[in-house]
Amino acid sequence: MSHFEEFNREVEKDMRKLFSLGMAFLILASLAVACSGPEEKKMKFFNKGKSLYEKGEFVKAGLEFRNAIQIDPKYADAHYMLGMVELRKGNLKNAYGSFSKAVELNPNLTDAHIQLGNLYLAARQPDKALKKAETVLQLSPGNEDALLLKAAALIALKDSADALAILRDMRQRGVKRPELFLLLASSHLQNNSIKEAQDALNTGIADNPKAVILYLTLADLYTRDKKIDEAAATLQKVIALEPKNSRYRLTLAGLYWHVGQNDKAVATLQEVVAAEPANEEGRLQVGGFYIARGRFADAERELKAGIQAIPKSFKLRFALSDLYLNTGMPDRAISLLNECLALEKDAGNPQILQTKNALARIHLARQEVKEASRYVDEVIKENSKDVDAHFTKGNIALLKRDGAGAVAEFRTVTSERPQLIPGHIRLAEAHMLNKEYNLASDTLEKALKANPRSAPLLSAPLVQVYMKQKKYESALALLEERIQQNPGDAFALNLRGQVYNAQGDELKAAESYRQAMAVYEKVLQKQPENWVAANDLAFLLSEYGSKPGDLDRALALARKAYGRNAENPAVLDTLGWIYYKKGDYRQAEALIVKAINKAPESVMLNYHLGMIQLKTGQAEQGKQRLNFAVRSGDGFAGRPDALKALGMQ
């Protein structure tokens, strides 16, 4: 555990007097020249920006700092403050750029070096963070921020001994900052010394009785150590410190629920609502608590009570609508959203637009394209740049096999909101539909370069594009990097097996699949209701299982996944294919026909349906399906069987 947090402090520095009082007239003369010049304007923008920053008005502050930089592009302090603005807005890439520019212009700007070090830590580059700490310590020996950064970097590098030496020395010198005790606890935990970690945090709390982060970290450690009463008592102290912050009561309720003290959990949740009955957020949090634990009836009750207490609430209706939608009651979801439309007469009201976007998504999921299009067009009429509406309109185009239309919509999405990763993925899908494979890979590669933290989302579609391009080595390199970062990434192991299959290397494919199966087994031990793991393990068992009874177990797992998500094409395919392997061709065909109606271009689905049709006396249709699969150029498990069935091998 690393609980090092960025405690950024603005330290106002007194300006040094440039000249003695005896030179006052000379100073006044120079000021007279400068007063109406760019220097005064620059400082006016900068000071106004700092004032806005301190008030939390980060967007406006950023504009002022940019104005100062426009006057003086080499103004390092303005670049630094712009970096702080971007940091507060969560734009880490922009923050990094501004801090880097600041230290380029003024290498002695220690605060900027510290922020860069913190960003390196967040990006899991502790070696670079350590270098930044050393740079600051050369400029400012004994700098507390730099010493804390150095200790954090050493902990990340698994060098807890040197980190402890630094932290203990700081402690002896009277440093009492909360970060110091968090890092001490992290160092002790790295040595599996949980008692020492708890002691460090208790000492920190004695020195910083209002530092909530120390209490929360201590409560977490007590929970790990199965000291539930101590954890609960610690959280109660946090609640006493910040009684209006409902998040802490929810944390306490979660602790009680985790240890089976549900009555205490419910009582704690009731305190959240009772404290502020007209608070939407509190009621949403309580509803979300129950949803996260599968208590949908309790969530429905709480959200309905919230709507009664706050009749004009859009947010509560949105939450209840989502609950209905995700539990198979779309008609109730639509009814609630229609209620929202009656709450506000202004067609351009943002919440009305949000309602129509939600209605469009539901109708699209039901393949009611006309209704979905109507709502989307109404939104775009009011706001031509509404990203959600263009995203749904792009999905409608994909459903209609309109590749050009989809490209246009998703280009709008990625232009307006470049950080929305699904927009880049859908744009690549649209290019794939147009057989523009190079554009598809280029789209995803650029998105990955700009958003390296989104690699888990982007790598899978990029691998699929590489496979279409037969760039198998590129696909494998991407997957190996992902597996190296997380050896328990079952999806990546599974996908790697598919790449090996496409290359014709069945031995490596089988080994990768076996590794994936081992991970899925562990996932299901901890999360028995995880339908994705159940479905993927079922398919792999049906293909690569070697034990007696593996096919029967695969069927049981596939049925479980089907019970959780009966409309998913992959789930339908898995269950149908297992029925095929068990000789139940009637059920197999019904399921895979349903799946292929949802994904008609799927090579695997066409292969599976073709094999089934050969068994059910539909030889001509079956051969057409198999020809489609083998002529797609895609490698897939079962390709040799398809070729053999067609007499091509």
TrEMBL record:
The positions making up the signal sequence are none
Domain Ancillary SecYEG translocon subunit/Cell division coordinator CpoB TPR, which positions?
A: 426-521
Instruction: Write out the entry's keywords from A to Z.
Output: Repeat, TPR repeat
What domain of life is recorded for the organism? Answer: Bacteria
Extract the Pfam families matched here: TPR_11, TPR_16, TPR_19, TPR_21
- Is the keyword rRNA-binding in the record? no
User: Where do the TPR repeat units fall?
Assistant: 42-75, 76-109, 110-143, 212-245, 421-454, 497-530, 569-602
Protein name as catalogued = TPR repeat-containing protein
Q: Which organism is it from?
A: Syntrophus aciditrophicus (strain SB)
